Amino acid sequence: MEHNLKLFLKLTGTICLLVLALAFTQPASIKSSNGSGPGVTLIPSDKFFVNSFVDCNMAEAWIGDTLRIFPGKYGEDPLWGDSRNLKFADGRSPDEVFKTLPAGFKEPALPPNTKPGSTGLHGAVWFETVYQDSGDRSGKTLYAVYHNENYPATLPYDPASGNGYIDKDWPQGLTGAATPAAVCRIGIMKSTNGGRSWVDKGIFIEDKQPRMILRPNNTSVTFAGGVGDPSAVASKGYLYLFYGEYGYAGTYAASTYDNETERKGQCISVARIKLTDLDQPAGKAKRWGGKKFDIPYDGIGNPIAKLQISPAMGGGPASHPASKFYWGPSVSWNTYLRCWVMLMAKAEGPSWKGSSVYISFNKNQDPGQGNNSQQWSIPKLLLNKPGHIIWYPSLQPTQSAEDISNKNTCVKLGREARLFLKDQFKDSSYYFSEYKLRFAL
Which one of 20, 32, 271, 310 is least enclosed by Cβ atoms within 10 Å? Predict the structure, then answer.
């Protein structure tokens, strides 16, 4: 989803950056009881802003002794306008790279969009996670997992392949009654020079036209359906993809649409793909089917039940503006806790607005064994900022000698981590950090 980032205030004849007004929130402490789960304390810290467009999970990798981040958006977008804001910045330490000034961000070479109906890259992309090929000792071979958004105008329906979308009864988008909702997909790009240039390897998980949720039932003004907002982690030869599932759990028809059928098929799901398939990922991913990873890349899988919100607690389908659901997962392996940690936002109002961050844990190191990938704890509230809108919370390495020497990133962290998030308060929107997390066994 697209949200405004660069907002400025005219003050005494000069344009200056508006300092974000933050509502007071008591720092959270989630305690472990009787060994039932990890504890975590939210600690106020020095505050700093990322000086580049961010509207996604923060993807990064260490290239030698340099940490490189890849925020931003690239590509065609008939709703929000085309963008060339997908950039990268370098630093010898986490704080250094996250505090990079605007002039320090550079544009990588990215593949061009191709015309509708042709093979190639369509729509806009956001890098959400970077997997670093462990077989390349230079550290320069990277695979970016990207969130991709399209519309009937950029990806019209092709009856021969079943790809694309039909512009009929299409739901409304975020910028007005005449604008279209997007469809999200997830793909892979590859770089062999540390992220300075990229080659598109294609889409590897998506929902197709029959699962789009159309008028009159879809009133969320966000997505017509699809899969997106991913976070990916590698384990035992596989890349595990945690993502938002926003499509209908069946073939959509206005006459047979059912709220509960949609809700049960959403919202945070998991799929996997072999690391050896990343160079040719199309059709290779498998979704969780209830007992194992056996559902095709474009099939109907089962979401993670423990991360769903029940109707009794206000949970509902993503196509309805008042539904509550978790979305935008960010997953990391915690070397101190010896478990997986997931942060997520919570939609609680129109256009997926919400003011809170939740946290969940999974003690099973191998997500491919049995139903380990489903064994997440019930999400607990980590941070609430009433009056604010929060997206894309993630954990990032700190400035500690341990994090730097271990080359920790958003997918591998230790006892302490820095919390980043996208925060909108009134008319101002920023990606920044003002808290650290300290975990306890």
Answer: 310
Express each pLDDT in 297-319 by its tens digit.
999 999 999 999 999 999 999 99
The pLDDT tens digits for 143-168 are: 999 999 999 999 999 999 999 999 99
pLDDT digits (tens, 9 = 90+) for 354-404: 999 999 999 999 999 999 999 999 999 999 999 999 999 999 999 999 999
Domain boundaries, the chain: 8-440
Pick one of 3.40.390.10, 3.40.50.1860, 2.115.10.20, 3.40.190.10 as the CATH number of 8-440. Answer: 2.115.10.20
What's the chain look like in SS3? CCCCCCCEEEECCEEEECCCCCCCCCCCEECCCCCCCCEEEEEEEEEEECCCCCCCCCCEEEECCEEEECCCCEECCCCCCCEECCCEEEECCHHHHHCCCHHHCECCECCCECCCCCCCECCEEEEEEEEECCCCCCCCCEEEEEEEEECCCCCECECCCCECECCCCCCEECCEEEEECEEEEEEEEEECCCCCECEEEEEEECCCHHHCCCCCCCCCCCEEEEEEEEEEEEECCEEEEEEEECCCCCCCCCCCCCHHHHHHCCCEEEEEEEHHHCCCCCCCCEEECCCCEEEECCCCCCCCHHHCCCHHHCECCCCCCCCEEEEEEEEEEECCCCEEEEEEEEECCHHHCCCEEEEEEECCCCCCCCCHHHCCCCCEEEEECCCEEEEEEEEECCCCHHHHHCCCECCEECCEEEEEEEEEECCEEEEEEEEEEEEEC
